[in-house]
């Protein structure tokens, strides 16, 4: 899935001229999903964006195909969407990257957008979000709400996207609570509720009183609810799975991007580029913060959100050390996109292995 940008070096606009685009073009969009729409997480959030796109008057009823395996099988599915006349195809998982590029080479009149990858072509662009920004903000809440200073993090795979999220979250935690530790357990899966629940329970067993997650199911929330802990969700607002435990969640608003993409294709202004939007652009943000979080904490989160939007706060600004005490950034230095996209270290305060 979203093995984002393991080899990408920097988000750059690509110099492709792009396919010849007609103005006032009707859009027939096709979406390829790695999980089920009912996962309440990653795929569910994408599908909300698809439905938002469909509200545009020039967008025809769209098609989605769910639970498509990454790899060779995805090429068959993408080809099928082309044969059925879709002129905008969105592939929403990292593992679809090579298949997307291959199919695009043979179908230059179709526009393809690939989520979280780094390969582009004249009719292929990429897109993702700066999820590290709301991760940092959610860490502030976790750091303020823990009483044991043990925060658990149920994580999928040790890849830059996930590592970046863990680090941003931990920097948020320790900006308000330098004594807190973030303990990481890897599940090696994006969507397996049973494995996710076991990982969450293992963190609760060692004393974590707040959990966070990079998973596509609500099992971590359900574990926290059952054990009387707090939880930070992910992907979408899953509070109904844990009404007492839920604090907030870093969430996606894919509709903000999908509507703009459809408009660009419709107007004939689409171009191949690599999109990496943040809180300022409305693609990522925090779900409503629960009433149990104190007002002063909410105010602090609002203040730092405004600073991120204004460009005066960047979570990865020095001085910054890795957990072994080695300096990563000097005072006032800000990490580049390329460095963030290839992140392979833990910051101070993270406990866990970086290996699979």
From TrEMBL:
Pfam families: Bmp. Residues 1-22 form the signal peptide. One of its GO terms (cellular component) is plasma membrane. It comes from Pelovirga terrestris. Residues 28-296 form the ABC transporter substrate-binding protein PnrA-like domain. Coiled coil: none annotated. Keywords: Signal. This is BMP family ABC transporter substrate-binding protein. InterPro entries: ABC-Purine-Binding (IPR052910), PnrA-like (IPR003760).
């Amino acid at each position: 899935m979203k093995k984002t940008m393991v080899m990408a070096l920097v988000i750059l606009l690509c110099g492709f001229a792009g396919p010849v685009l007609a103005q006032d073009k009707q859009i027939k969009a096709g979406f390829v999903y790695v999980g089920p729409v009912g996962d309440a997480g990653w795929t569910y959030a994408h599908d909300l964006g698809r439905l938002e796109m469909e509200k545009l008057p020039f967008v025809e009823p769209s098609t989605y195909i769910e639970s498509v395996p990454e790899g060779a099988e995805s090429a068959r599915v993408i080809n099928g969407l082309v044969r059925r006349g879709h002129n905008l195809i969105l592939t929403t998982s990292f593992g679809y990257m090579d298949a997307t590029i291959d199919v695009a080479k043979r179908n230059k009149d179709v526009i393809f957008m690939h989520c979280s990858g780094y390969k582009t072509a004249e009719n292929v662009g990429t897109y993702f979000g700066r999820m590290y920004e709301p991760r940092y903000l959610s860490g502030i809440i976790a750091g303020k709400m823990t009483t044991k200073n043990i925060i658990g993090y149920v994580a999928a795979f040790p890849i830059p996207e996930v590592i970046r999220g863990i680090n941003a979250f931990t920097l948020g935690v320790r900006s308000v609570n330098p004594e807190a530790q973030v303990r990481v357990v890897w599940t090696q899966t994006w969507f397996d509720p049973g494995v996710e629940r076991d990982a969450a329970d293992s963190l609760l067993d060692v004393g974590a009183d707040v959990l966070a997650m990079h998973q596509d199911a609500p099992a971590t929330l359900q574990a926290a609810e059952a054990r009387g802990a707090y939880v930070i969700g992910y992907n979408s607002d899953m509070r109904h799975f844990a009404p007492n435990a839920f604090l907030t969640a870093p969430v996606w608003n894919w509709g903000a991007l999908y509507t703009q993409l459809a408009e660009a294709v419709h107007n004939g202004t689409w171009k191949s580029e690599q999109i990496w939007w943040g809180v300022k652009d409305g693609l990522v943000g925090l779900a409503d913060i629960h009433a149990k979080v104190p007002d002063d904490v909410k105010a602090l989160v609002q203040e730092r959100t405004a600073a991120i939007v204004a460009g005066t706060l960047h979570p990865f600004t020095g001085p910054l050390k890795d957990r072994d005490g080695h300096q990563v950034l000097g005072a006032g230095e800000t990490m580049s996109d390329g460095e963030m996209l290839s992140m392979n270290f833990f910051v101070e305060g993270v406990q866990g292995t970086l290996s699979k």
